[in-house]
Amino acid sequence: MPVRWLERLLLLIGLVCLGTVAYAYFDARLTARRENQRLDAQIREHARGEAARPAAATDSFRGLSAPAPPPVQEKLEEGALVGRLEVPRLGLSTIVLEGVEDGTLRHGAGHIPGTGLPSLAEAANIGIAGHRDSFFHPLKDIGKNDIITLATAERTYRYRVEWTRIVPPEDVSVLADTGAPVLTLVTCYPFYYVGSAPERFIVRAQRIGDDSPPISP
Amino acid sequence: MKRFMLASSTMFLLTAGAAMAQNPLNTTAPGPTQEKLPGQTNNDLPNPGHPIAPPTTRVQTPPVTENGTTEGTAAESMQRDTTSTGTTGVTSTDTTTTTTTTTPAPTSMSDTTTTTDTTVNGTSGRLPRTGSEMPLVGLIGLTSLAGFAVLRASRNA
Predict the structure, then answer these.
(1) Hey, are the CB atoms on A141 and B33 less than 8 Å from each other?
(2) Rounded mean pLDDT of chain A?
(3) Other C-beta atoms within 10 Å of A85: how many?
(4) Which one of A60, A111, A163, B94 has the fewest beta carbons within 10 angstroms of its own beta carbon?
């Protein structure tokens, strides 16, 4: 009789745990899909606005009044859409949301609050964190000179990997401003580790060349 | 009773296997692009930041030095006027005054130049936790189902 109860208990635990994992997986996929569509719509909208701007500028010149610049949001809310991060060589493509709360990192990579945002500061250290066992897992194969793109609604920024490093979790100096436009990716290390990993894997990339227009979907 | 002992020992073995999976020594060796030696990055570049972390420094914007330009704030203009000789009445381009005005970086160019705080506010002194609990939950689930299967098989045998 106790064996039968143990059996049922194990079955229940197994189904609940695997159901939770399956729900988290599909929830992340659906959220990523929805946010990707939203970002693409924003990119298209911005492109249309850019195309219409010369005519508007001419009109305003006639009227001797410059058009007011669009308001820039200084601080985003937790979970707000920031952009899309891609490493083409590794096939990594993930949506970037604001914040590093558990719920946010379950749906995509998270922009670390307090670090730069490409739309706010040109020469900023943009910190982005992601789970090593999901979105940032391909980073285990990243190497020097790999190209990283960060697409926002306004434009696409390209970065080249300078170095990778393994640091303790307390070493926040990797997120400090360097005076140059850089991107810092943070994930846990080792990559194959169940539970809270003891170290952090850092990828530092420098912005390169000119910024191409946003990637069209 | 024998069956129960068999099931218990099987469960112990499965749990021990899950516990061993968390051992740091059980992780796979770093790949070709990962760190090879302590203090050495995967790119064979010197790694001064490991294992001793550099101190957290806040890089400040260098001060702007203006020498006799016609730009500047009203305060700068007044400062130049007061430090010049004033005998000729031409003060803005007078090089004999050698007034080096050191001012903070201009901040009123436009509203869009507002920068974020460079100190890492949201991290509370630690880098974000980027390991989800899902692998652990999945492992527990698989272990439980395996235990269930073993129990069921042993009961039917």
Answers:
(1) yes
(2) 84
(3) 25
(4) A60
DSSP codes of every residue in A93-116: EEEEEE---HHHHHHSEEEPTTS-
Q: Please state the φ and ψ torsions of residue A141, each to the nearest 5 degrees.
A: -105, 10
| pLDDT tens sequence across B112-157 | 333 334 445 445 688 888 878 888 899 999 999 999 999 999 888 8
CB B125 within 8 A of CB B66: no
Contact state of B58 with A2 under an 8 Å Cβ cutoff: no
Residue B147 C-alpha, separation from nearest chain A C-alpha, in angstroms: 7
Q: What is the ipTM of this complex?
A: 0.71
Judge contact between A177 and B58, C-beta under 8 A: yes
Phi-psi group of B125: left, alpha or beta (phi > 0 → left; psi -120 to 50 → alpha; rest → beta)? left
Inter-chain touch A174–B49, beta carbons under 8 Å:
yes
Using the Cβ of B6 and the Cβ atoms of chain A, whether some distance falls under 8 Å is answered with no
Q: In this structure, are residues A206 and A162 in contact, taking their beta carbons and an 8 Å threshold?
A: yes
Task: State pLDDT tens for residues A54-80.
Answer: 655 555 555 444 444 444 556 788 889
Q: Which amino acid is at B92?
A: S
- Distance in angstroms (rounded) separating the CA atoms of residues A169 and A136: 17
Cα separation, A174 vs A145, in Å, equals 19
Task: From B22, B139, B142, select the one nearest B150 (Cα to Cα).
Answer: B142
Asked if residues A125 and A149 have their Cβ atoms less than 8 Å apart, the reply is no
Chain A residue numbers with beta carbons less than 8 Å from the beta carbon of B38 are none
pLDDT tens for each residue of B49-104: 444 444 444 444 455 444 444 444 444 444 444 444 444 443 343 434 344 444 44
- Residue A1: what pLDDT? 64
Helix crossing, B134-156 with B2-21: angle to 10°? 160
**pTM for the model:** 0.61
